[in-house]
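User: I'll paste a sequence; please echo it back and then give the predicted structure.

Assistant: Echoing your sequence first, then the prediction.
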Amino acid sequence: MALRLESPLFRQHLADLLARQSFDAVHIEGIEMAPYIDVLEAALPRPLIIFDNFNCEYLLQKRAFLTDLRHPRRWHGAVYSFIQWQRLRRYEADLCRRADHVIAVSEADAEALRQLVPGLNPTVIPNGVDVSAYDPRTPPAPGMQDGALVFTGKMDFRPNVDAMVWFAEEVLPRVRQQAPHAHLWIVGQRPHPRLAPLRNDPAVTLTGYVEDTRPYIAGATVYIAPLRIGGGTRLKLLEAMAMEKAIVATRLGAEGYEVRDGGELLLADDAEAFAAAVLSLLADAERRAALGRAARRFVESRYDWRVLAPRIERLYEQAPQETPRGCS
């Protein structure tokens, strides 16, 4: 995972830039950029190195392993995830020791990293959104009607694929027994082959790549986040909350956000409870509106970039002229 975007050209450009110019701090964005940490360590003077761990990757693979292990047809995936889990534990621990500061997106992720590296003190700075860019008055995408159940995300990403297969097979039939007009919209690029059978279901639309997800979120009667695998926090949830959508999520799907069940959204983990939560919102427009308003207030107060950016800037301001090695 760390090497999938490896670029010798980028490595050389980075080394050349650091040779020409010194920097007080360098911010590593995610595990894909972490392989270049050795270039930063070799720079003179060495900059303050900040590693922003978007997802606790070893935890994501651990959860994928435990999920796939319950399904014999997916044991090949479980084997893959087990190997990745063990490799990522070692890799992420090494990164945390080499960086001067580590950013985690949630307290749950920070605790998982502390388990990897005793004594580590990650700075928790959540993912955020530009709330002003998500207008609840955005017109819906063409063809969307009352009863639209919407999920957005990269559809070749394993947690998203698992979520949609589970929802389509276990939850949607329960919903449509009482709400035949309910229609599932799966919005995102590169749908995985596991989703191909859903194209034959008249109650499901797979859009593939779209220029802008906001009209689809705007068209949602209920936004769903039925994730059963994953780590970090889900930006999709913030986007839907910023657009004042009524949301049903699993507890894992809402992990890392201090939301209240029945306050900013509804939480449900098994198929029966998830279907019941969706049905309750489909039948109650007033409650949908109230949840949506509470959700937007929640995002505005905690996850707008205007709130979060100053916290990142304070990390940058800790950069001394000469930075000692070590991890804090």
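The chain has two domains: 8-126+307-316, 131-303. The chain has a mean pLDDT of 90.
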